[in-house]
Structures are given as structure tokens and as C-alpha cells.
Amino acid sequence: MDLSINAFNNRRGGTYITLKEYGTLCKNPNGVSLGYHCMPELAFDRLERFVLEHKGPGHLTDALELMTLASRKGVGKTISAKNYVGVISMADGTQIEILPKVYARDEESSIVQTKSIFLHMLKSIRDIPNKPFNMAGLGTANHHLLDIFIRMFIEEAVALVKHGLKSDYREHRDNEPFFKGKLQFAQHIKHNAGHKERFFVEYDEYNMNRAENRLIKATIGLLMKVSRNTRNQKDLYALLTAFDNIDTSMQLEKDWASVTTDRTMKEYQAILAWCRLFLSGQSFTPFRGQSAAYALLFPMDKIFERYVAGLLKKGLGQSPVQVKTQDRTHRLFQNPARFQLKPDIVVQGPGGVIVLDTKWKLLSPSPDYGISQADMYQAYAYGKKYSASEVYLLYPWNPRLSDITQPVVYDSGDGVQVRIEFLDLTLGKASVDTLLAKLSDTIGTKK
């Protein structure tokens, strides 16, 4: 089934909707003929409230950066996705899944292929643990992204429980019916002037109620609220029983500061990465409100940037080639030092320097392919400041570029050469290997 088809159904009491970035939602069936995705009126109204709830100051990311509210004659109100992809889970059970705009050489990618490509790209993001990204058996065609992420968390948590939750000594201070450890004299006098049978004491207690386990339990509780998948709900409930004697983290920042990161806690690294992702919103844009239970939304420009950088590092990271990301070596002006330059990727080898910048934009055959002047000015500045042999602007491939058979190169006439490259995401590493072959002569190495 292709994403151009309106895809929503009701199961387990919730409406499931899938569309691609820049896709448009409406509640009037007349919008279907325009390529819009029609959704139930109540669900549409709740989504509209979600956008309005997060409009304006006081929010780290304005929801209007993620979605656009508009109106069209004959259709009425519309809501359009922008370049953020992921999941919005509404309080009424509605789940809206937004996938990236990915094209294959023959046709626009199907849901299954697009979802697999997206999940593969996410592996390049440090905040998401790589170990659980085993797509075999996950049934990406039948499960939404939120279901898949929760399943990955569950599998990692089950493995940890089977291995055994770790205990640790933790300070315990309370008014007890027994004497143990050290007597807290001031508190003892305050609380027990008329209770000689009690002692206000402080002692170290060895148990599993440590910060790491509290954070895991907090994540389980959160996911039980937002999951609409019967299997996930059942397994999360079963996991919760393993944490019966552990408190739920109520002070996340304090518990994160108490997490032990040495090699004795190696088994916890992956599961804590998932906890941080769900609880702290790292790499995600988390929203909550009366209309939305949870939202996990990724900026595709950042995902594309990190994906390409990760593959180039892997392909060019051997000596004597140095690959830097988000390099901050130069500023546009030195006196005074102003306007920091921060190219996505800088590759330096014996033969020279190449600067690469990723752009999550769909170009077209129009004059200059729709490349913005701002991108070209930026590329020119990179070429000058880094004395780069070449500057590459990397864009995702799309069918409108099929007629381009010759290299797209812009020469400034004063030493800066900007090359435009298109990466076919459906080819994955193979597409990047083609780019690596083009870079090898300039940087003085062979892949």
C-alpha cells in the first residue's frame, strides 16, 4: 500500500493515520481528490487543539514549526506536516505517524520501505541505542513507529531483567522501630520525645531501589499510558512486576545525575539510552497537553545530516583521513570574531580539504534546480575559509532529477568550486559509496 492512499483504521479503540512529511490532513472528504488525507472530524479537531495548545512563547519548539494550519475553499480547515517525522499519540487513542518523503528510482517508496529506511537512518543518531535495531520479526508493515520503539525498549528491558537488576548501597534516613547505623540525635529528639520505642537513624541499605532502576520503572509507566498495542501493553505490565520493590522516579534530573556509568553497569547502557530518549526527549521534540498524550518528532534535516556523516566517517575514518562533524574552526569575520561557521562535515586528507553540507530539500529541474542563494553563499564562505578544494552540497534524490546526467558544478572563478550531489536513500550505503569514490582523488586516498 502506498502512502498516497488515505491510510487510517480503527483498532483497539484508536484511529491510526499514516502520511508523509508535507502531507496534508483534512476532515472534509472533498480533500481526498486533492491528495489530502481525510480523518474523522473529532480526531482532526483534537489535533488542531494540540497545535494551538503549543503555539507561541513558553514552548521549546512551537508546534507551528511542525504543522501548518490553513483553510482551503471547498475543503475547509487543513493541517499540513512539515519536515518533522515521527509519531503523535493523542489522548483519545488516535496515533498519527509521519514518515519522511523518500523516493526510489522507479516509484515513490511504499510504507514498508520508507519505514525501514527511516529506522535505518535513525541508527546514526547517538541518542538512540543501536543494539535493539533488529528489524527481523518486528513486522514494520503492520506496526506503527511508536509500537516499534516501545517493542525495542521492551526487548532490552526483558534481557536486563533476565540478567538480573543490580542493587547498590543507598543512604536511608527514617524514624524506625529499631536501632541501626547512626542515631540522628537532633531528629530523634524532635520526633521521639514521647516515643522511646522509636529511633531516628541513618544507615546504608543494600537494595535495588537505585536511580537506574527507578528511571526504567518510570519509563515503563509512561509507555503503558501511551501504548495502544495489546502485546506491548501485556509485556509492559509483566515487566512492571519485576520492579515491585522499586520506586518510580519522581525527580528525573536528580536520578539522571546519580546514574553510574562505569563498566560495572555495562548491561544498563542500552536500556538507559532508551529511557533518556522517552523521558528526557533527547533527539525528540516531546509535547504533552490536553489533546496529546505524547509526541515523538524528529527534524529530518538533522537525521539526514547525521546519517550521511556517520556513513562518511565509517568509509573515510581511517588514517590519514580526518572526518569532522559540526566543525567550529572558523568564523566569517575575525576582527571582531563574529558569525561562527559550522559546516556539517569537513574531510581532510593528504591531498586537500573537502567541505560537505547536507540539505534536506527536494530540488527540481528549474533554473539552478531550486538551490537557494543562501545555501550557495554559505558554500562559498566554507570554500574560502577552509581553503577547500571542493565544497559539496548533498541533497536527497527525487524523480524530478531523473534527466540530470551530467555533474552539477558551480565555479566561482576565484578558487571555489561547489558540487551538487544527490543521494538515493533507497540505495543506502551504495549511494554513499559512489560519493566516496568521487572524494578519494581529491583528499589523496583510495577507499
What does this structure look like?
- The protein is an alpha+beta fold.
- The protein has 4 domains: 1-112 and 285-299, no CATH class; 126-167 and 208-282, no CATH class; 177-207, no CATH class; 317-443, 3-Layer(aba) Sandwich (Trna Endonuclease, Chain: A, domain 1), CATH 3.40.1350.
- The chain has helices at residues 41-53, 111-122, 145-163, 185-192, 211-226, 230-241, 252-257, 269-280, 300-316, 373-385, 429-443, and strands at 7-11, 14-20, 24-26, 37-38, 67-72, 76-81, 84-90, 95-99, 168-176, 182-183, 199-207, 292-299, 322-325, 331-334, 337-340, 345-349, 352-358, 390-396, 408-411, 417-423.
- The strands form 5 sheets. Strands 13-16-17-18-20-19 form a 6-stranded mixed beta sheet, with helices on both faces.
- A hairpin with a 5-residue loop joins strand 19 and strand 20.
- Helix 3 (145-163) packs antiparallel against helix 8.
- It starts with 6 loop residues before the first strand and ends with a helix.
Which structural class best describes the helix and strand composition?
A: alpha+beta
Overall number of structural domains? 4
Fraction of residues in helix: 25-40%
Low-confidence stretches: 1-12, 130-141, 281-289
